[in-house]
Amino acid sequence: xxxxxxxxxxxxxxxxxxxxxxxxxxxxxxxxxxxxxxxxxxxxxxxxxxxxxxxxxxxxxxxxxxxxxxxxxxxxxxxxxxxxxxxxxxxxxxxxxxxxxxxxxxxxxxxxxxxxxxxxxxxxxxxxxxxxxxxxxxxxxxxxxxxxxxxxxxxxxxxxxxxxxxxxxxxxxxx
Amino acid sequence: xxxxxxxxxxxxxxxxxxxxxxxxxxxxxxxxxxxxxxxxxxxxxxxxxxxxxxxxxxxxxxxxxxxxxxxxxxxxxxxxxxxxxxxxxxxxxxxxxxxxxxxxxxxxxxxxxxxxxxxxxxxxxxxxxxxxxxxxxxxxxxxxxxxxxxxxxxxxxxxxxxxxxxxxxxxxxxxxxxxxxxxxxxxxxxxxxxxxxxxxxxxxxxxxxxxxxxxxxxxxxxxxxxxxxxxxxxxxxxxxxxxxxxxxxxxxxxxxxxxxxxxxxxxxxxxxxxxxxxxxxxxxxxxxxxxxxxxxxxxxxxx
Lengths: 175, 303
Prior knowledge:
The complex is a heterodimer of chains A (175) and B (303). Chain A is of the alpha+beta class. Chain A has helices at 28-35, 50-60, 123-127, 155-172, and strands at 21-24, 41-43, 46-47, 68-74, 79-86, 90-98, 104-114, 146-148. In chain A, strands 1, 2, 3, 4, 5, 6 and 7 form a 7-stranded antiparallel sheet that branches. The longest helix of chain A has 18 residues, at 155-172. Chain B is of the alpha+beta class. Chain B has an 8-stranded antiparallel sheet. A 3-stranded antiparallel sheet of chain B has the order 3-5-4, with helices on one face. In chain B, strands 8-9 form a two-stranded antiparallel sheet. In chain B, helix 5 (153-167) packs antiparallel against helix 6 (253-265). The longest helix of chain B has 18 residues, at 37-54. Chain B is globular, with a radius of gyration of 20 Å. Classes of the chains: A alpha+beta (175), B alpha+beta (303). The interface between A and B is large, with 57 and 73 residues.
């Protein structure tokens, strides 16, 4: 063993996998069962008005892309929301459980996909995943499940949660 | 118990939550007698606990309290923080000072951390001024100083989560905190690496079993700042320019995480660092960028 034996010396041409990486962690139904065990969840259809959107955007400095809320009310108290955020390379769907006071109780990532280029910003590319619950369509890269790499910031999710909390305040909170 | 529309004996199951400023992903390989909800919950709770103890942004965390403490008094800290500080002291000594958690002032100067959040930008004490008691449960500062554990705590959190999963009877899986990961169990698993040039592209790194893999690189910082990397050279106080990305594998993720910083700063033929890597059973993969292709090499310039 020479002193550099701890270092890999191979110079290799590396296989590169297809450019899209995607994982589905939980379906909407699975997230509901985990975040509100044994509770009946009732959809609460709600559309933000232009004025409400403006208020939320001004309060949080984020953009409200969707006027339609994916919102459920739990019979045991609290709310379940599904939302999406868009980063430079990634598109993330996540669920938030709020308690009756509007405080965050739990956040779960539902699915995560990334790609290079601007694909992720095209509505067509994103919509192919929207509302999908079948894992099959999402297993884009079955071989490599564990990815190392410099840290991906969760700043978009943090911003998304702030936007949802403002949304709760402006539109959902019972008055 | 909660009911999920997945078969109990199936698997693997994966969950992800935003923690430690990144996405933390936990994979439990099947089979399990039931959906491992309690194991997931406890593992995420362990990671959240590390976050709460070692967050630089939170004035009430152990790190926040150390960074505001006067010198000369013993300050009680959690045993987990003590364990990380003890490891940081060892890595500082055994790397000839290349791994230095008191480099926080440099991170602020380089714009990686916001200056405004800190009350006293000139807490100039170094590692020699950070005294741990024998039980690693309290700390004393011989001079005021400030620390940042971001270069080691993420790996430690991964190790804690793996221990919790194993305590819950989970035989195998993976905990991945935003790219610093540890595989456990008897099955080999494939690990991919983000292409340093195209972060969304995945390179095959290799197949591993019971191993931690951590990577450092300038991309995906997403901070809006034009910095070379989040690795600071303690000698110059400047962020180092990385040739691409550096990946370290080791049995424990805390070591793999911290060793990426040492690997980024090491000079060729540094016997001290070589012996540290050998002792911690660590290997280094450097991915430099040649054109659009990522090339794996040993970090030495090529002819």
